[in-house]
Backbone:
């Protein structure tokens, strides 16, 4: 099974805590699983809430005009990589 | 609420819509309105689900068994507002008598530059107030819309006014609400219709005309997350060339407590449902949700 990196686990904790995902433990999220629709089943309002939490925690705002977004929201792994990259700037 | 509407085949062939548009623009409103009669009869004859839904709704709002006149009037009202959309979207507002109630509220809100949620419904014509706000008053209004559902209608209508079409934010992508967030931060007013549930959308149970149905929590939750006021708006068709547009504040501020979030959202959505019912009683034939709204067919 795919193991989460420490940073992916940190983002997973933020995700579970922010969205109050009941019955899901952060370490159990499959890193390549889709976050929206299938998989975790998040929706657009979850994405907004997550974006607000990311902005508060990591100090940058996810922008809708970012062409990366389609990819960013595909999985925990893609999201974590994006956050790590943006935060470092 | 039933999600049946999303599965219904599109009513209105692009060609038929194109014809309505052509007649509306080249022949005029009077001639176009004559054609509403055969169109209404055709719709009543062929649209079984819509006919049944109309009867059930009318029974509730009128508090009696609807006669054929009521049922005809209901569909005719719908057809009339579709015809008028052509005029609203092309900015031909001078042929209408439009009365506005609570308009100062919306002008004050626009002047504040803070943005808000304009919460509407499929009761009456949202385009009436959209055209009035954007075209006439130059208000910064953007609309959240399920464009995937009725693509034929959306394309025909968008072509009429590309500028107005640009103010549509399509629902369905993960970053839809990031666009909304940015628009609100720029001081835009975001129009949303709160009476239909999109696929996969989160809902809460409400009482509506004495019976339970599910309504979306999205618009209220959005207002809470973005800390923006919610203003209700209804554009009601009153027959002839008359429209009444109503604005009223629902919430200046929505504060949610993490642990009781669902319950608190439920209270706000119920208030919306109550106002929606109030305006539906005021203009009963303006209800344009022609599907199994109260989930009575079972699925």
Residues:
């Amino acid at each position: 099974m795919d193991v989460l990196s420490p940073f992916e686990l940190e983002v997973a904790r933020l995700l579970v805590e922010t969205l109050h995902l009941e019955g899901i433990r952060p370490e159990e999220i499959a890193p390549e699983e889709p976050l929206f629709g299938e998989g975790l089943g998040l929706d657009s309002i979850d994405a907004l809430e997550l974006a607000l939490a990311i902005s508060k925690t990591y100090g940058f705002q996810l922008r809708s005009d970012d062409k990366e977004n389609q990819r960013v929201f595909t999985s925990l792994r893609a999201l974590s990589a994006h956050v790590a990259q943006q935060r470092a700037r | 609420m039933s999600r049946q509407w999303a599965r219904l085949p599109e009513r209105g062939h692009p060609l038929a819509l194109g014809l309505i548009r052509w007649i509306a623009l080249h022949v005029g409103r009077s001639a176009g309105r004559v054609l509403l009669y055969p169109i209404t009869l055709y719709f009543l004859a062929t649209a079984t689900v819509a006919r049944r839904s109309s009867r059930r709704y009318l029974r509730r709002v009128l508090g009696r068994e609807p006669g054929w006149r009521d049922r005809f009037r209901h569909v005719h009202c719908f057809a009339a507002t579709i015809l008028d959309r052509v005029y609203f979207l092309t900015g031909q507002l001078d042929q209408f008598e439009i009365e506005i109630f609570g308009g100062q509220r919306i002008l004050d809100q626009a002047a504040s530059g803070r943005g808000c949620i304009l919460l509407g419904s499929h009761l009456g014509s949202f385009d009436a107030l959209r055209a009035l706000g954007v075209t006439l008053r130059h208000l910064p209004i953007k609309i959240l819309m399920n464009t995937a559902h009725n693509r034929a209608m959306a394309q025909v209508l968008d072509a009429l006014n590309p500028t107005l079409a640009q103010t549509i934010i399509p629902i369905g992508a993960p970053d839809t609400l990031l666009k909304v967030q940015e628009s609100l931060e720029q001081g835009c007013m975001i129009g949303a219709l709160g009476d239909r549930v999109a696929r996969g959308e989160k809902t809460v149970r409400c009482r509506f005309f004495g019976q339970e149905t599910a309504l979306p929590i999205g618009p209220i939750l959005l207002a809470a997350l973005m800390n923006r006021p919610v203003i209700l708006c209804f554009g009601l068709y009153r027959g002839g060339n008359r429209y009444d547009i109503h604005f009223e504040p629902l919430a200046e501020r929505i504060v949610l407590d993490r642990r009781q979030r669902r319950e608190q959202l439920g209270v706000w959505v119920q208030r919306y449902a109550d106002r929606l019912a109030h305006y539906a009683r005021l203009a009963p034939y303006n209800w344009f949700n022609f599907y199994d709204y109260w989930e009575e067919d079972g699925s």
